[in-house]
Every structure is written in structure tokens, then in C-alpha cells.
Amino acid sequence: MNEPVLFEERAAQNGMRLAIATLNAPQMLNGLSLEMAHRLDERLVKWADDPAIAVVVLQGAGDKAFCAGGDLQGLYRSMRESPKGDAWANRYAREFFEVEYRLDYRIHTYPKPVLCWGHGFVMGGGIGLMMGASHRVVDETSKLAMPEITIGLFPDVGGSWLLNNMPGSTGVFLALTGAQLNTSDAFYAGLADFRLRAADWPRLMDALLAQPWAGSTGAIGGEEKGPAFAPRSMNDGLLRQALLAMEPADVLEPGPLRQHAFQINNLCAGTQLEEIYADVAALKDHADPWLSKAARTMLAGSPGTARLAFTLLQRMRQRSLEDVFRAEYIAALHAAAHGDFAEGIRALLIDRDRQPRWNPATLEEASRDWVQKFLVEPWPPEQPHPLADLGAV
């Protein structure tokens, strides 16, 4: 049986080491399973405490995806086996979302540089892993999206924070439509920091082994620096220089998100979801295929997801990343108990009929009153939030 995550350490010329984690389920587009999340989180803790580790690298096996989502099959089984409507009864969902969100938060707050190669598909759970990395790299194959509206969930893994930090109202548009972004738009939306050609990735890894990485003792290139020397800052800079040295010379043309940003901002800037939904829906026959596909995806998607995603974006606008993860954890448990999440997976992956029967079936039925249940803590009153310690010193 193949290991779900491959771990490797490579020695640089000055004795410091690169730590490499490879998601190893290429046949499943490296979808993040609970076991993968556990193993990756445990190893990140170990590497954070190892003074000889200079940089952590996250990548996916195969050439099709870094990570195209989470363990939908496992979540589907757990939802089928748990009583519908009881958001605290699904033990697997409780563990999965807690471990995944803790892992994502750890990457956001990691004490060492994290280089993530977002090649191929980067969706859902893959966005959660990549977005916290300090150095996010895309290439000509990259396709990024948060398409949860098609499966009845919502853009989680910190999506309510990430989407709120995108230019103008583009985050609202992406939450409602699940529209796919190319390499150029990944930069525009703030999802990427660097780019290279996919064929140059091995050469970059070789170049990193030649860098004079700093250690926690203050050593770099065999020399000792003073007590004020900061290894993290130095290593961030060395990694940045290595990436910039391999950046392709060609200029990226604006992607469709940026091309249509003015129109999207006009459509999605309001506070009434019903109006935004109607305006986006009107794009279904637009001459631009990217816009028309986005509108059609929204119209075919879960109205409950549209309401929940929009509500979380509104409520979390000025909240911390920790608060966002805590709110999304509550919403995710309710989503797993509500029904649309299971129905979306059934239609997409189980029966593959692509004919989900959403409940509620319309945005009017998925009202502001209806969505309130997704915001209520489902555990016993005396129990603290499972993610209460996020951000604790």
C-alpha cells in the first residue's frame, strides 16, 4: 500500500535541510483524506521544532494536481451513516474538519518558510493548504477554484477570510459561481506569489540545495551572526531570490476575472443576496464563455450554499482568521447534517447523474431565517469550541 504522504529531507550544501511533503494520491488528484491531514500535521509539528530544517516544501504527486479537494467519499459515507439533522452526531465529520482546519491554520502561522507548488488543479481543500504558505507558486498548468456550490458545502478552509481579502467584490462572485482561475488571475486574486514553468520545478529544487540557509542558532554559510540575526527573515529572502531567478520572462495577460473586474464589482457589491444572485444569473447567456459558465454553475448549484457562503462572508468581514475557522467549523458540521452536501456528492461522484435535488430548491426558500441554524454551536452548552485554542499564545 502506498503511503498517503511522502516525507523527505534533503541536505543543502551548508548542512541545513529542506523538508519535502508530497501528497501521494495522484489517482484521486491528491484529495486530502483524514489520514493525510493527520500525518502532514504531525510532521509539520516535528519539522517546526527541528533547528536543522530551513524550509518546508508542499507538493502533489503526479502532473495533474497539487490537491483537488478533500475526502468527499469518506464524508459521504459518514453522512449516510449518521442521523440526518444532528450536526454533532457525525464523529467522522467532527474529526475531519477539526484536523483539516488545524492543519490549514498551522500552515498560516508556521514559524519557517513554506513553499507550496500549486501545479494543476488546486481546489477546495487544496486551496486551504496552499493559501497559508509563505511562498505560493503557480505555473502554466495551474487551475484554482473554490467550487463548493456544486456539492452543497461552502468555501471553507478559511475561504470566508480569503475571499473577503480579494479585490473589490470578486470574492463574492467566486463564492457564488465557483469560477476557475488561471495563473494570471491567481496573482490578481491574491492566491499566488511566484510563478515558474512546470518543467523548471526540479531545477528550482536543486537550486534550493545550493542556498546558504540560516539555522536557528544564527549560522549561515558556516558563519555565526549576532543575537539580533533572524534566520526566518534571511531564509524568506533566500527563497524569494531563488524563485525570482527562475520566473519566466513573458508577461502574463490579464485573466478573465481581472478583465471583468469592473462589471463583477458592480454586480456583487451590494448587501442583498437576492439582487446579486439575479444580476449574476443574467450573465448565463453572456458572449464571454467564462462569465456564462460561471453564471450557469451558480444556477445549477445549491441555493443553500449560496445563502450560507454569502452570510459567512458578511459576518466574517472584519473577523480574525481564527474566528473564521471557528465559524466555518460550526457551519461545516451543519452542512454535513443538512442534506445538500451529501446530495451534491451523490450527484457528482456516486451516481454521477449530475442531477442534484437541492433542498431548499430556490434562493427564496434558502432565506435569511433558514440559514441561521448553520451559525449555532451544535455541541453541549458546557463544552468549549473544539477550535477554541486557535491563536492562543
UniProtKB/TrEMBL annotation:
<feature type="domain" description="Enoyl-CoA hydratase/isomerase">
    <location>
        <begin position="19"/>
        <end position="375"/>
    </location>
</feature>
<dbReference type="GO" id="GO:0006574">
    <property type="term" value="P:L-valine catabolic process"/>
</dbReference>
<dbReference type="InterPro" id="IPR032259">
    <property type="entry name" value="HIBYL-CoA-H"/>
</dbReference>
<keyword id="KW-0378">Hydrolase</keyword>
<dbReference type="InterPro" id="IPR029045">
    <property type="entry name" value="ClpP/crotonase-like_dom_sf"/>
</dbReference>
<protein>
    <recommendedName>
        <fullName>3-hydroxyisobutyryl-CoA hydrolase</fullName>
        <ecNumber>3.1.2.4</ecNumber>
    </recommendedName>
</protein>
<dbReference type="GO" id="GO:0003860">
    <property type="term" value="F:3-hydroxyisobutyryl-CoA hydrolase activity"/>
</dbReference>
<dbReference type="GO" id="GO:0005829">
    <property type="term" value="C:cytosol"/>
</dbReference>
<dbReference type="InterPro" id="IPR045004">
    <property type="entry name" value="ECH_dom"/>
</dbReference>
<dbReference type="Pfam" id="PF16113">
    <property type="entry name" value="ECH_2"/>
</dbReference>
